[in-house]
Amino acid sequence: MWVFPLVAAAVAFVFAALLVRQYVRRRRSYQLLWAIALLMYAAASLAVAIGALNGWSRLAFEVYWVFGAVLNVPFLAAGELQLLVRNRGIELALDVVLVFVVAYSISVARGALYDAQALAQQLPSGKHVFGDGTPAHRLPQLISIPSYLVLVVGALWSAWRMRGRPGLKDRFFGTLLIAIGATIIAGFGSTFAALGDLPLFSVSLLAGIAVMFLGFLRASRQPSVTTAGAAPIAP
Fold this sequence. Notes:
Elements: H1 3-26, H2 29-54, H3 58-85, H4 88-111, H5 126-130, H6 135-162, H7 169-195, H8 198-219
Helix pairs in contact: 1-2, 1-8, 2-3, 3-4, 3-6, 4-6, 6-7, 7-8
């Protein structure tokens, strides 16, 4: 099952590279935030591939947990908010919040006690590794779930604004695909991770990022008609 997360890491890396290229050309901060999020996703997926292939170490699990289960979603959500609001003050406030969230998440995970025996599982659960209800175990509930809701609501709001406008058809469907891909990862992926089902979790990792990438490619097409409107992860 290590092949699926390895391919997911490759897709996420290519995705991030395209976003960096857009950022270099346009200098829009939300593109940089999304690129960082995708690099985190790539690192987490690579950690899953290593854990599946060679067994889990504490470092591999922490990379998977912090970058995959906790931090990449807040960066996606912050980028979505920056795209929708386009306010310099809000951008700076979000950047400060992200710095705090990163520092807090890493410090909690690094300082947590862990059960070495739980790492012997095919796909260790944060509940078993860190202990049920501990701060490290609760990080996704505290950070990722609210961030996912912000991301999906923002994407759906963008799609709603573009409905029925022929010139923004590609961005409309691309936006919906991005929301669907995020839901595959957050919904199915999280469920399979909690159950310790490595095969299905690995497939969901690849399926979710692939759908998001397809959405990005479609949303990035040049509109046939020059019209106003915004879409997540657009050029």
